[in-house]
Design a protein that fits this description.
Layout (H helix, E strand, L loop, with lengths): L1 H9 L47 E11 L4 E11 L1 E2 L9 H8 L10 E5 L8 E6 L5 E7 L5 E7 L5 E6 L12 E8 L4 E6 L2 E8 L5 E6 L7 E8 L5 E8 L4 E10 L2 E9 L7 E2 L2 E2 L2 E6 L5 E7 L5 E8 L8 E2 L14 E2 L42 E2 L14 E2 L60 H6 L4 E5 L5 E2 L7 E6 L4 E5 L2
Parallel strand pairs: 22-23, 24-25
Antiparallel strand pairs: 1-2, 1-21, 3-4, 4-5, 5-6, 6-7, 7-8, 8-9, 9-10, 10-11, 11-12, 12-13, 13-14, 14-15, 15-16, 16-19, 17-18, 19-20, 20-21, 26-27, 26-28, 28-29
């Protein structure tokens, strides 16, 4: 166990993300790794304290209506658990000289008496290590993962107030590396706190008589998008409202409704803040429900959306809490685990065949694998003998017992193969549509637009007056085979021969 902490401290796995310190920049979502206070004061202004008298054992996270990597699909809820380990007894064996040469940072190793580690839970997750003094003040924190790692240290005065913040130096680092440090100065009987970078004021904090933070001002902190913040409290010194103004002109207001001294609901009102912390699991957080300890640190918290549906829930486990057991917590499920206190998102239910987690019988079959219907007794279920049952359709299937609406029909005047039923001149144009039946004219040219193709239109070019001079007399009617006809039968195609030599074709309807 001692060797494990040395690995975390001296050989951190490289990684990067923003560690949520100082907490004002992330208020009220100050930290989901460590239990954090719901309101800030002079003793927890920059970092939360860790209570080693009953140290945190783990954190359970329950996701609602989210994609579960364990199931590979969206589930109603599933939970994960992250363990924490108290490595305080290993600090005596830490070679601080090697530590300083590794991190190039100063820290208060003299008062280092406790250590807490939170290893990553997967290939891409981060690990956290904290070194604290007897009061639970964090003296050093380290985040490790993949990429450049993030770490820092704090020094405190005799009253437990932070007075110096050392951040990791920017690479490249070496023997002449300059520390990125901030002096934290207290004045006016600890009612005013000023953060200094060399001789420049970075930010300032103002407190009331009880030590509660009432105002924050960003003077020259370019890494923060907060301009200022104001905090209001009731007569019991419990926070009732906080308002944050941002450099984009936006505003966030948090209203607190206290149910009792250990339970409070916080409602968020966002006015164009564009604050990314208002989202979790790609859903906008509208309300947060807190369950607090006597020091107003969150033991459990739940994020709700605008419809008050749960998005995510955090539950911290401490020394006195029950063992975490994962399993199905739905009593209606066939794999319900009475001992489980966290749902793993893997609940199963009986299908109609009585199989736990089954999907029911195959289509067209019963639970024993037999056909529900087999009219022709051919051993093939009627449900699979489907197709076009219309004998007039091009794709008629004589073996189909059930019509599946797939019938396809030929175009008018054409066969199913796209060939004309009637095409006397074999020009590819059906006689019913051809403007010159007896002479091939696939282009269907008709210069005088009289519905008689140019190929057989004898009077093309003759003046209108010439045609009107004599009214032609019908001599006889013949069909396409040259047989003389005496009647104009419906559905017949006839050629009308006149005494002036004109031949006219007509399709009688």
């Amino acid at each position: 166990m001692k060797k494990s902490l040395l690995i975390f401290l001296i050989f951190p796995i490289l990684g990067f993300t923003q560690h949520r310190f100082p907490m004002i920049d992330y208020f009220p979502f100050t930290n989901d790794i460590l239990p954090a206070p719901i309101q800030l004061n002079s003793s927890n202004l920059f970092l939360p304290k860790i209570d080693f008298s009953c140290a945190i054992q783990g954190r359970a996270t329950t996701y609602f209506n989210s994609f579960s990597p364990f199931v590979g699909d969206t589930v109603a809820q599933y939970s994960t658990y992250r363990s924490y380990y108290d490595f305080s007894e290993t600090l005596d064996s830490v070679p601080w000289g090697v530590f300083y040469s590794m991190y190039f940072i100063e820290m208060d190793s003299t008062n280092s008496s406790h250590a807490l580690s939170c290893p990553g839970t997967g290939f891409s997750s981060y690990s956290y290590t904290y070194i604290c003094d007897d009061s639970g003040n964090i003296l050093f924190y380290n985040l490790s993962g993949f990429g450049p790692f993030s770490y820092g240290s704090y020094f405190y005065d005799d009253n437990g107030l932070a007075i110096l913040n050392n951040l990791q130096p920017q690479p490249p680092v070496g023997l002449n590396t300059t520390f990125n440090s901030y002096d934290i100065q207290w004045a006016d009987t600890n009612k005013l706190c000023t953060v200094m970078d060399s001789s420049n004021v970075i930010s300032s904090y103002i407190f009331d008589e009880g030590g509660n933070l009432i105002n924050y001002y960003n003077v020259s902190n370019q890494s923060s998008n907060i301009d200022s913040a104001t905090f209001l409290y009731n007569n019991d010194n419990l926070i009732i409202q906080s308002t944050f103004l941002y450099n984009n002109g936006g505003q966030l207001t948090y209203d607190y409704s206290w149910i009792d001294e250990n339970n409070v609901e916080m409602t968020i009102n966002d006015i164009n803040s564009d604050n990314y912390m208002l989202s979790s699991e790609n859903q906008v957080i509208h309300k947060v429900i807190y369950e607090l300890d006597s020091s107003l640190y969150a033991r459990n918290l739940t994020y709700l959306d605008s419809n008050l549906n749960e998005i995510i829930r955090y539950k911290y486990h401490f020394c006195e809490d029950d063992t975490v057991v994962y399993g199905c917590t739905n009593s209606d499920a066939c794999n319900f685990n009475l001992s489980a206190n966290y749902d793993d998102g893997l609940c199963f239910y009986f299908d109609i065949c009585g199989e736990c987690g089954g999907s029911g019988p195959d289509y067209g079959m019963d639970c024993n694998g037999n056909c529900l219907d087999d009219i022709d007794l051919d051993g093939i279920c009627d449900a699979f003998e489907i197709g076009c049952t219309d004998v007039l359709a091009c794709n008629y299937d004589p073996s189909a017992l059930m019509d599946d609406s797939s019938c396809v029909y030929a175009e008018l005047y054409y066969t199913c193969d796209g060939v004309c039923f009637n095409d006397f001149d074999l020009d590819g144009v059906c006689d019913e549509l051809d403007n010159c039946i007896d002479i091939s004219n696939s282009n269907q040219n008709d210069i005088d637009e009289d519905d008689e193709g140019d190929a057989c239109d004898y009077d093309d070019g003759i003046g209108v007056n010439e045609i009107k001079e004599d009214t032609p007399t019908l001599i006889k009617m013949i069909d396409v085979l040259g047989r003389e006809q005496q009647e104009h039968n419906n559905g017949s195609l006839l050629f009308y021969i006149y005494d002036n030599g004109k031949v006219e074709k007509k399709f009688n309807l």
